[in-house]
Amino acid sequence: MDATQKILLLCGSLRAGSSNSALLRTTRALTPPGFVADDYDGMAKLPHFNPDDDQDPLPVSVVDLRARIASAAAILICTPEYAGALPGSFKNLLDWTVGGIEIGDKPTAWINVSPSTTKAADAHDSLRKVLRYTGAMIVEEACMHIPVHRSTINDQGVVTDDQIRAGVLKSLAALTAAVS
Predict the structure, then answer these.
(1) Local structure of 133: helix, strand or coil
(2) Domain range enclosing 45
(3) Ranges for the NADPH-dependent FMN reductase-like domain (predicted)?
(4) How far is the C-alpha of 54 from the C-alpha of 47, rounded, in Å?
């Protein structure tokens, strides 16, 4: 296995202090040997998706997104639910992946950190539907609901709870095992 295999981390929240961001920072620290985490931070720079613009020359931010997806061995997503669905900015990111081929057959999973009683189920149902359109290979064993409460996040924005961290490790193990 190439020591530089990447797991692309996609956060569906633009809030720096979100529990989704904290979970992905924690994931970066727990990435297993043989893999490196690649945090994608360009979501706010993506233009509004327009099918007319999904042709060469693509906007630079879209080229970057697709290149990062292409170079990744796997993708791990952590997104909140907003108004009963995926946040608009994250749906926009996903829309830009539909016309590309980079995500096709790529091992992909998500961790749902919602502590709400609804468990952000609508957002993750939508995420599953959109990922199917992109051709992503959803790794079911790596898709998890691991509630993260603010009290488990330290001043550096990393989750310190051992049970949550164990869940992240389990998700990473399943995701990396799916990388052929």
Answers:
(1) helix
(2) 5-177
(3) 6-144
(4) 11
Residue-by-residue DSSP string for 25-83:
HHHHHHPPTTEEEEEE--GGGSPPP-GGGSSSSPPHHHHHHHHHHHHEEEEEEE---BT
3-state secondary structure of 85: strand
**What is the CATH number for 161?**
3.40.50.360
> Distance between CA 101 and CA 98 in Å, rounded?
8
Each residue of 7-43: pLDDT tens digit? 999 999 999 899 999 999 999 999 999 999 999 999 9
* Domain count for the chain: 1
DSSP β-bridge partners for residue 40: 10
Residue range 99-111: mean pLDDT, rounded:
95
Dmax (CA) for the chain in angstroms is 47
Amino acid at residue number 125: D
Q: 1 pLDDT exceeds 70?
A: no
This prediction's pTM = 0.96
Structure tokens at 88: 């608009």
